Amino acid sequence: MEQQFTTFMYHEHVLWIAAFTLGGLAFALGPIAIVYLLMPLRTRQVAQKAKQFIECGMDPIGDSWIRYGVVFYLYALIFLAFDVDVLFLFPVATAYNDAVFASSIRDFIEIVLFVGILSLAIVYAWIKGVFKWERKTYLRR
Amino acid sequence: MGTKNIPSSVVQFALADKLIDISRANSLWPLTFGIACCAIEMMATGCARFDMSRFGAEVFRPSARQSDVMIVAGTITKKMMPGIKTLYDQMPEPKWVMALGNCAISGGPFAFDGQYSIVLGADEFLPVDVYVPGCPPRPEALLQGIIELEHLVSDWKRWKNPEAA
């Protein structure tokens, strides 16, 4: 019987992934819950400053919300484009030689379309000059 | 004053707490915090010759949030007092305070009429558990203070009392 890739395949894989997700959640949230039960719920204070962020004893001067170069932000955005590329091409690479996808030019065209659209973002950023590491200053005139 | 009414947790296990107290007594983590010349003696105590790590108390933490013993090592000026208060607040429970040297106990040589800049003793604003006299105290005195603090933290004794036996 020929397999249709619209039918629900890989049942046991879904189970495994669900089990691992639940296990991961338990390992992430479990310690927080256990610590909450075992920790002292308050700390004795003489100046009510236990929540102060700075740990040198002195009161902080100024705010931590300062303005800095937007270059890092743009760079991180562009990283996302490459990241999505890689993220979605890995499953394609593992499944491409599968019997379901054999002898079909349609899948290849779909991949080309997908990568092409993602590349448009990179081309756009390239034209805008994101890859040149320059400090962008906009002076108020 | 001393340590009383240590805030407790939701779930408590008597036996486990006893064991945890012994562990705490054997690994006190002092705050890296020296405010005057007694801190030099504190450093000497931490170093190889006097070797505080024999008693498990050598892990001086640079952050108040990781330490459980505050060694008030030296003269407390009125300008420094708010900082010390903040550091004490930021330490997690259970926490203990040791006053090292005469200045931290009572103001030491600064306790005279007309003196305007020194706080006369750490116990003016902190619950001090152990007082170590000296000007400055010898490292052996600080070690003795650490051992006294261990006895305060748990019933477990590092050595038997030879006079009691």
TrEMBL record, chain A:
Residue ranges crossing the lipid bilayer per the database entry: 14-39, 72-96, 108-131
EC category: translocase
Highest taxon listed in the record's lineage: Bacteria
Principal place of residence: membrane
Enzyme Commission number(s): 7.1.1.-
UniProt entry keywords in alphabetical sequence: Membrane, NAD, Quinone, Transmembrane, Transmembrane helix, Transport
Pfam family, one: Oxidored_q4
Membrane topology: Multi-pass membrane protein
Family affiliation: Belongs to the complex I subunit 3 family.
Protein's name in the database: NADH-quinone oxidoreductase subunit
Organism (species): Desulforhopalus singaporensis
TrEMBL record, chain B:
Family indicated by similarity: In the central section; belongs to the complex I 30 kDa subunit family.
Keyword annotations from UniProtKB, A to Z: 4Fe-4S, Cell membrane, Iron, Iron-sulfur, Membrane, Metal-binding, NAD, Quinone, Translocase, Transport, Ubiquinone
Cofactor: [4Fe-4S] cluster
Localization terms from the record: Cell inner membrane; Cell membrane
GO cellular component terms attached to this protein's record: plasma membrane; respiratory chain complex I
Tagged with keyword Iron: yes
Binding site for [4Fe-4S] cluster: 37-38, 103, 135
Alphabetical list of InterPro entries matching this protein: NADH_UbQ_OxRdtase-like_20kDa, NADH_UQ_OxRdtase_20Kd_su
Topology within the bilayer: Peripheral membrane protein
Stretches assigned to the NADH:ubiquinone oxidoreductase-like 20kDa subunit domain: 37-149
Quaternary state and interactors: NDH-1 is composed of 14 different subunits. Subunits NuoB, C, D, E, F, and G constitute the peripheral sector of the complex.
The protein's Enzyme Commission number: 7.1.1.-
Name of the molecule in the record: NADH-quinone oxidoreductase subunit B
GO molecular function term, any single one: 4 iron, 4 sulfur cluster binding
One Pfam match: Oxidored_q6
Gene assigned in the entry: nuoB
Any GO BP annotation: aerobic respiration
Reactions catalysed, as given in the entry: a quinone + NADH + 5 H(+)(in) = a quinol + NAD(+) + 4 H(+)(out)
SUPFAM superfamilies xrefs: HydA/Nqo6-like
